[in-house]
Structures are given as structure tokens and as C-alpha cells.
Amino acid sequence: MPSIFISYRRSDSMAYTGRIYDRVVAAFGEKNIFKDVEDIPAGMDFREVLDKALTASDVVLVIIGQQWLYVSDDRGKRRLSDPNDFVRLEVETALQRSDVLVIPVLINNAAMPAADQLPGGLKELAFRNSVVIRDDPDFNRDISKLIQAIQSRSKKPNRLPLILGVVALLAIIALALVILLPALTNPDAPSATAVPTEAIVIAPTDAPTSTLAPTDVPTSTPENTPEATAAVSAPAGEPTVAYPDGRPLTFFYDRTTFVVQNPNAASLAFLSLSFEALGADGQPNGSSFSGAKWDEKYKDLLRGGCGSIELPLATKHLEPAACRLYNARVNSVADSEIFWVSTSFRVLWDGAEVGRCLPDAGTCTVNIPPA
Questions:
Q1: Ranges of residues in the chain whose predicted pLDDT is under 70
Q2: How far apart are CA 138 and CA 288, in angstroms?
Q3: The predicted structure's pLDDT at residue 176
Q4: In the chain, which end has fewer C-beta atoms inside a 10 angstrom radius, N or C?
Q5: Alpha helix (H) residue ranges in 29-138
């Protein structure tokens, strides 16, 4: 069942939105709909609540009436021109997410705003296909089309189970090759049941699985020489501390999410931070992520703030209790940027290694150079 966020202005479309809300609730259930600032508990930062609600949403309906583009505040300033306007924040956040369906809903004979009428972060809205909701006798037919559009979003197949199944099958085949290939290629070798157990190199059972095939999995079975055995069995690298008196950074991660948190009293530059996955030999294996991706959305990691990388196939993402403010979220990453599911990964500050982390731990702290 999709999670739906309804963005609207009370002064522009309150009555229409209430009627649309009732029909959407009937189709998808009240618990799956976020509609109003009335859903925000008293005393809570509405920006934080809206961000979490939008993060969990699959579909965002932007209700646009005749005055949506022109509604002004008490000083006569257009609300959409205010970077802190909550409707602008809602729509901008939704447009930044590649995994969210944003549907402009035109009511009361409203026209779709042109790109040059919208502030920078909202211009993309002008290119989203809209749905028109008219008064009776057309209302039922129009709202049915909207519900069908939302339902089509929820019917997209989830490929994660298929990917996991393929990875598991490949792992079984690789293990069978490790055990059987030496006997098949050397007729004089003892049978598989007689192979000494110390000659078989088996990957640790607690090694992390991934929706992606690890880049350091061998494509053929090495000879069981002492050097080959040592190379496969070599530790991925212990966590390191390059700056014992430096500024700490804390990382939280699981199979779906990577989060960096800044516990320092000052902001830090996202652009200085980067990561590289390491193979079983402790060397970079090609997967890496640059803080420049966070920097595109927000320049600094604020005091007490967090930045996250969220895999789009996941239905739920890690939300550390330490993170109440997110400076930037990245939810569109290439396979080569998923660095934290390898044997280990290293943290770089301005291109120099400052520490290493082990994925199984789920959390890690490294120190960057002192200010």
C-alpha cells in the first residue's frame, strides 16, 4: 500500500482538499495519508516532521488552486518566494527524491504554473504531468483517475527478493567450485571427502550479504598454495585512528542506509569527506562515495546534523536516534558508490585516510584533523 503526502494551502484549496482526502483515505487507508499540519504534534519542529513524512512517502499530491501561485503573507510578499515557506519546502523536498511520484493536482479551473513563474527549487514541478479534478458531475470520474495513477505506482514490482535470490545462488555456486574444482582438474587428487579441512578456504559466515555481487569475489578458484590461502584469509584491516586528538565523526549503517553524524560544536564541510570500500587484501576495490554529492544539496554538515545515503529499493531506512536534523539526503546512487557493504571501508578527509571501519559493527567513529 503506497504512503501518500498531500501538500496544499488552506487559503487556496481547503474545501477541495478535504473532499480529495476523504476519497484517497477510502481507497488507501487513513494511516497511509499525511495531509495537514494538524498531523504535527504540538511543540515539534514542523520541518523535521515534514522531512520524515516526505522521506516515507511514495506519492506526493500537490494541490494547486487558482491562488496557489500568488498567495502572499501579511507583508504582501508571495509565500512561494520565501525559502522557509512550508509548502515550498514540501514540494522542493519531494522533487529532489527520484523514488517519489509527484503529481500536480489542478482544482477549481486552475492552470499549471510555468517554470519561469516558480522559484529555482520548484521549476521541475512545471514538467510533471498533472491531473485535473473538477466539480460535479465530473468529480467522481476525475478522482477515480487520480486513484488509478496512485495505484499504478504501488504495483511496481519489488526486485529486491529476486536480487537476493540471485546473490545467494551465486554464493552457493562459488562455494561448490572452491571445493570441487581442484578434484575435477587434477585426477590424481584425493576425492572431495578426503580433502584436508585446512586446505579449504571458506568465507566467514558472518560476512555481510549485499544486493550487489561483491567486486572482490574471485571468478576462478586459486591454487591452494600457502600464498593464495594467506591472501584469501587475510584480514580486511583493523579500524585505525590517525588523529587521536582530532574531531570525531560518527557513522551508522545497515544494508539499506549509511548515515554520518557531526557531534562537534562547529559545522564541517561535506566536500572534504569521502569513502572507499576495501577488499579482503585491505586495498581499495573500486567502490567509493564522495561528499560532493551531499555538497550539491547542502554545503555544510551542521553541528549535531546528519547526512544520509538511502538505497532506493529499500522499503525502510535506518533512522539513528542521534539524528534529529538531516542536512542532506542522497537517494540515487550507482552500484559503484555503495561502499559500506564490503569487507571494510576507509574514511578520507581532504583525500587523506583518517580511519577504517568494519561493516559488521553497524557503527563507527573516526577522528578528522583538529580545527
A1: 36-41, 154-168, 176-241, 313
A2: 53
A3: 66
A4: C
A5: 46-55, 86-96
